Amino acid sequence: MRSTIRAVGMLAAFVAGSQASAAGLAVWTSQGSILNVREVTEAFARARGHKVTVAPVGSSALARKLTSGEQADVLVVGPEDMDALVGKGVIVAGTSKPWITADLGVAVRTGTPKPDISTVEAYKAALLAAKSIGYSFGCSGTNIAKGIEELGLTEQLKAKTVRTGSQAGGGPVSEHLVKGDFELGIQQINIMVGAPGIDYVGPVPGQLNKRCTTNVGLMTGSKHPDAARDLIQFMLSPEAVPLLRKTHAEPAS
Description:
By secondary structure, the protein is an alpha/beta fold. Helices cover 43% and strands 22% of the residues.
């Protein structure tokens, strides 16, 4: 009987200790990486026993949160934004690392014809033939616009181009595509593939497919810096690679 009581007591102490050591981590991420972040952090939570909450934040929402004093543990944003935040002391120096890269892709609303974009010339013809096209701001939008400029189509497409994202009322390209805001949508593949109501056509061809990189870093206001560093290490580890590829991204290094 005494040995049973002792065993029960030891188990209760172990559970209590595990609960005490488990951290509740908050991760803020740009829209373009939210599916990748969720996939990897869910695996981390299962492996480590921590609870991880993931929230999307655009640049304006991030600025509001920081101004109000709200903090998270880990931040996932583009390298230029991350560098600026390191300079402002929002991110711990030395913790910002390139995490993933993602190609650009094309999609249409489910049930509508898929254009041929297999070559640069075919992609150019598809852009010209579309009644309207849509892409976001941020890295993907910048790179898509650069590709259009290389094709010499900037002025020709201007009147039928719709820009989406936080600077235009929110929502990824796929959501606007479903609503019929435009006929042809272009964005990072890791956002578009599998989104309901759209059909993925394929990647932007050749040299016009300019990848977007996303960084991960530790926030200076983290309440659980050791656990947050462990999460970042897991995100950058070989163990995370198949999870990234499952969500249509590649490790940045």
